[in-house]
Specification:
The complex is a heterodimer of chains A (292) and B (673).
Chain A lengths: L2 H5 L2 H14 L7 E7 L4 H19 L2 H4 L1 H14 L7 H10 L7 H15 L10 H10 L9 E10 H4 L3 H11 L21 E5 H8 L1 H8 L6 E6 L3 E11 L10 H27 L1 E7 L1
Parallel strand pairs in A: 1-6
Antiparallel strand pairs in A: 2-3, 2-5, 4-5
Helix pairs in contact in A: 2-7, 3-7, 5-6, 5-7, 7-13, 8-13, 11-12
Chain B lengths: L2 H11 L32 E6 L8 H5 L6 H8 L4 E6 L5 E5 L7 E3 L7 H7 L10 H9 L6 H12 L20 H21 L9 E3 L1 E4 L10 E5 L17 H13 L7 E5 L22 H10 L2 E6 L2 E2 L23 H6 L11 H15 L7 E4 L46 E6 L4 H10 L2 E4 L5 E7 L12 H8 E3 L3 E2 L9 E7 L7 E12 L2 E11 L6 E2 L6 E2 L5 E7 L9 E9 L2 E2 L1 H8 L43 H4 L6 E2 L2 E4 L2 E3 L4
Parallel strand pairs in B: 1-4, 4-5, 9-11, 16-27
Antiparallel strand pairs in B: 1-12, 2-3, 6-7, 7-8, 9-10, 12-13, 13-26, 14-15, 14-17, 17-22, 18-19, 18-23, 20-21, 23-26, 23-27, 24-25
Classes of the chains: A alpha+beta (292), B alpha+beta (673).
Chain lengths: 292, 673
């Protein structure tokens, strides 16, 4: 299924990536010289080196001469330079190459870097993860797939809209009444609110979205088994009694296989990008000149 | 290869269900997705928030506007991850970022199906269409410094195919003989779309996020909008995402979906969601089929079955009702855009919308058609969405609007917009809420089917509505309101059966404000009915206070005055006639707040007494798509002669304050016999 989307990288990309990865360390690489500012940091120097290597590789594979976007761009440049020319696009393009225009044009540079970067991240079929590898990935990175824990709680709500000025006094009465319930659910107490149940199960994210951050924090800090309140929200006052919590957990691989695979493939792309870049970096002899 | 043969091969050789494959060839195990698998299952149903209208870089228009974010990015955005927004600089770095204020529960990405294959062909050097003139032009238009005029030409050359009449609808030439290049490539991209939805769907019992595969069927003859979003219940989908070129008439689309999905015995189920009837020049609900003949009983039955809900509001305006019409009401003026079709919207050419393209009119026409044909083709439930073209589902905050692109302002070119990031008449769009047993595909899709849905203009205000005959007058005080509501009647979207001996139907509407928003002002009941052949509409106040005095300080956008955190009302129809067809929907109003345009003027401290020029500079940016009258007087070559104040902040053409709202699906009453 990846075929079409990745076909973009196949011309040159496969050769580029595979050759670099497999042979890069054994092949005597080219020499390049990069010029950096005198006060450039090490990170800036490394970025400049990597870009120079990728550009050089792109040129070695002829992308600067065969890429359609580069072609179109250079033709447009030439028509700007020679507005009265009646030469064909191909003739203009060849003349642009003779002038080495592609070596200095920022758009060409950007295009080549993009294409080289995508090629570095190409994932061949034999690098797609097996089920065992996915299982190992899930074990190693469980936190990425963790599901938020849930609170189970009793909930009594007093509506500001309904009770108006009586709300504070009603809250005092409710606070006195609730402990007598023991473990029983507060059925019939308080005011209804759409979506509210006398016994609820929800994540803190849901509670925050439904009732606001203050109530979410209030529930998060509540001790299990005790009525707490009132806590204020935009709706009124709330009393809650946390009756239990289900901790965060990581589902089994069978349940989230597609999710784990997608995550691992993303990671493989990053790994390949780094491996191939490192291989290229190792194969190149780089001379650094610091501009005065 | 002949097109028919290609389709046959595709159908015969590919699995209908898209599943992920590992290198060991194993496929994802079949995880039961039956009702009741989630930890938060609630038979009385809970509300879940979603967006079913989102475009990513897979949509041709979004792609041409510089959207580089993918479906994967869109899904990340729904969970709170920041994503980049155009314009990008020469190095490819984004100049803006976007982040939602809280996660969504469900999403359906709806990239335009027409050019899924086109983009793949033009980006695939191995494709035989890669070197076609149109692909070469497309890629040139993707250049960082592409001329906006040339980009527009390329856009029209390709996207213009969706504006052809149905008899002339066809794929672009780049798709090759029999459209084979694009059909083949489109099949692969569609499979990717389905797989990406699968990769984020939470199949654990935590049920934190639900995704639906989908796409947009983008018919726009003469730019009159007839678009539909196609939503699939699960990973069992049709092999191709049938688009306007495959099926230029909507009844053809429905027939394909019925045959190749619903009746296929593969576990596939699907529905279509109409939207932007306001931009159809009144033809969206026209009593005319593709062959030019009036509706038949078969047609209206198919439409009723395939289109349970409609998108009442989104980026390109509201389709509820039009101010000043005979079946209007005082609150119809909300986010009406002054354009009649897609082209006039994009070009900002003022052209009054046709009232026949609004739902208020369609509801009446639908009841009349039901009398003659036996089925109401327009018995729509309600949803709302963003229609974002920047991969930003649910990005609806008025105080953080960054533009949605599409028919709006593209923002492709540097510098990033200093003025309004979108056409000022457009808006951030809205959200859909569903009442479902749990956050999973089966439950949410079923909610769409039975229309237990409501739309909001953005805020997550929560509304519940039931209609019945014998509800107690104090139902609002009952803790088991939902239980009594279901037991004694039907929820929003339902059909209320006649009950001999009962005086008039009763409706209970309960609402609460957005926990992160402003208080509510009131609940209204909108009733429409047929009195003989005469269609009537009346708006009743059901709860709250329309004269609560609440307002907003337009200098600071601070809300002022009191409102209601929650509201509830039991309302009985005082004018009920059991012999008349009728519908009832609730409209819940917030207190006034600043519109996004006002937020931006306030944020920039735009002082109309001592004006600066930032926002006016949009007049000098052709990519901004502005051709408003005052721009014509601006000499962009002479900054010193720019006008002294920004007309859009100081002389706004749109209301500076709005009342956000929710619309429930109607409850329908049909007399006996």
């Amino acid at each position: 299924m990846l075929r079409t989307l990745l076909n973009f990288f196949l011309i040159g990309g496969l050769l580029f990536g595979a050759k670099v990865f497999v042979e890069g360390r054994r092949v005597e690489g080219p020499e390049i010289t990069v010029v950096v500012q005198a006060d450039a940091t090490q990170a800036e120097v490394e970025k400049t080196i990597q870009e120079a290597i990728l550009l050089n590789e792109a040129r070695r594979y002829g992308w600067d001469r065969h890429d359609p976007i580069v072609f179109t761009h250079l033709v447009r440049n030439m028509r700007f330079v020679e507005p009265n020319s009646t030469d064909s696009d191909l003739e203009l393009y060849e003349r642009a190459l003779e002038m080495n225009m592609q070596a200095h044009d920022p758009v060409v540079r950007s295009r080549l870097l993009y294409r080289a970067g995508e090629s570095l991240a190409y994932v061949p079929e034999d690098r797609m993860p097996s089920r065992d590898q996915l299982d190992a990935h899930l074990q190693a990175h469980g936190e990425r797939f963790e599901r938020e824990g849930r609170f189970r709680f009793h909930h009594v709500f007093l509506s500001r809209s309904k009770r108006s000025d009586a709300l504070p006094a009603d809250a005092i009465l409710m606070g006195e009444q609730l402990p007598a319930l023991g473990d029983a659910a507060p059925v019939g107490l308080g005011d209804p609110l759409p979506g509210l149940r006398s016994e609820q199960s929800a994540t803190l994210t849901q509670i925050k979205s439904d009732y606001g951050a203050e109530l979410a924090q209030f529930i998060d800090e509540a001790a299990i088994g005790e009525w707490r309140g009132p806590a204020e929200s935009v709706y009124g006052l709330h009393f809650v009694r946390v009756i239990g919590s289900d901790p965060a957990y990581v589902p089994a691989l069978d349940v989230i296989l597609a999710e784990v695979r997608a995550d691992r493939v993303r990671e493989i792309r990053d790994e390949l990008r780094k491996e191939r870049m490192d291989a290229l970096r190792g194969a190149y002899t780089v001379h650094i000149e610091r501009a005065p | 290869m002949p097109r028919s043969l290609l389709l046959c091969l595709a159908l015969c050789s590919l699995p209908v269900a898209a599943v992920g494959c590992g290198s060991d060839g194993s496929t994802s195990p079949v995880i039961p997705d039956e009702l009741g698998r989630c930890a938060d299952f609630d038979e009385l149903r809970q509300v879940y928030w979603g967006d079913t209208h989102i475009h990513t870089n897979l949509s041709f228009d979004a792609n041409m506007q510089g959207t580089r974010t993918s479906p994967e990015d869109a899904y990340a955005f729904t969970q709170g991850e920041p994503i980049p927004l155009q314009p990008y600089d020469e190095e490819g770095n984004p100049t803006r970022m976007a982040q939602i204020d809280r996660p969504l529960d469900f999403v359906m990405l709806s990239d335009h199906a027409e050019f899924l294959g086109t983009l793949a062909v033009c980006n695939d050097p191995n494709s035989p269409g890669y070197d076609s003139r149109q692909c070469v032009d497309y890629r040139a238009a993707q250049e960082f410094d592409a001329d906006p005029g040339e980009v527009a030409v390329v856009f029209i050359d390709i996207n213009g195919h969706t504006a052809a009449g149905p008899e002339n609808a066809h794929y672009p030439a780049l798709c090759g003989p029999g459209d084979a290049f694009c059909l083949e490539a489109g099949t692969d991209v569609w499979a990717e779309v389905v797989n990406s939805a699968e990769a984020v769907y939470d199949r654990s019992d935590s049920c934190q996020f639900t995704s639906f595969p989908g796409y947009e069927w983008s018919a726009g003859p003469q730019t009159k909008n007839l678009h539909r979003n196609v939503m699939f219940k699960n990973e069992n989908v049709t092999v191709l995402p049938y688009n306007y070129f495959d099926e230029p008439y909507v009844e053809g689309l429905w027939a394909r979906l019925q045959e190749e999905c619903i009746d296929a015995g593969t576990g596939c189920d699907t529905l279509t969601i109409p939207h932007n009837s306001n931009l159809s020049e009144g033809i969206y609900f026209e009593n005319r089929m593709g062959n030019g003949e009036p509706f038949t009983a078969e047609y209206v039955a198919a439409r009723n079955a395939m289109e349970p809900v409609i998108e009442i509001y989104q980026h390109k305006g509201v389709s509820e009702c039009l101010p000043g019409e005979t079946i209007s009401d005082e609150l119809c003026g909300f986010e009406i855009i002054p354009f009649s079709n897609l082209a006039t919207t994009n070009l900002e050419v003022i052209s009054p919308p046709d009232p026949r393209g609004f739902l208020r009119a369609a509801y009446g026409d639908g009841m009349k058609l039901e009398e003659s044909l036996g089925t109401n083709p327009f018995q729509y439930g309600i949803t709302a969405a963003t229609d974002t073209h920047t991969s930003a589902p649910g990005f609806v905050a008025e105080d953080d609007f960054k533009g949605h692109g599409g028919a709006g302002q593209p923002n492709r070119y540097l510098p990033p917009p200093e003025g309004f990031p979108d056409i000022e008449y457009l808006s951030p769009g809205g959200l859909t809420a569903v009442w479902a047993e749990e956050n999973a595909r089966e439950a949410i899709f079923s909610a769409f089917r039975r229309k237990e849905t409501f739309g909001t203009s953005g805020p997550r205000m929560l509304v519940r509505m039931f209609g019945g005959w014998d509800y107690p007058s104090d139902l609002c005080s009952a803790e088991d309101l939902a239980s009594q509501g279901y037991a004694g009647g039907v929820p929003m979207g339902g059909n209320l059966s006649p009950q001999p001996g009962s005086s008039a139907p009763m409706f209970v509407v309960s609402a609460k404000q957005d926990a992160m928003g402003v208080p509510l002002q009131r609940i209204q009941i909108v009733k429409g009915w047929l009195e003989g052949d005469e269609y009537q509409v009346h708006v009743y106040e059901a709860a709250g206070d329309p004269n609560n005095g609440a307002s907003v300080d337009l200098a600071t956008c601070a809300p002022q005055g009191e409102g209601f955190g929650d509201l509830c009302g039991v309302w009985q129809d005082p004018d009920f006639d059991p012999t008349e067809r009728a519908y009832y929907y609730a409209r819940v109003m917030e207190n006034p707040t600043c519109r996004w345009t006002t937020h931006q003027c306030v944020e920039k401290s735009y002082d109309c007494e001592n004006p600066s020029r930032d926002i006016d500079m949009d007049c000098c940016d052709p990519s901004a798509g502005l051709n408003v009258a005052w721009c014509e007087s601006i000499d962009c070559t002479d900054p010193d002669r720019l006008p002294p104040a920004d007309a859009r902040c100081c002389v706004p053409r749109v209301e500076p304050a709005i009342q956000e709202r929710a619309w429930t699906s109607p409850i329908w009453y049909k007399p006996p016999g």
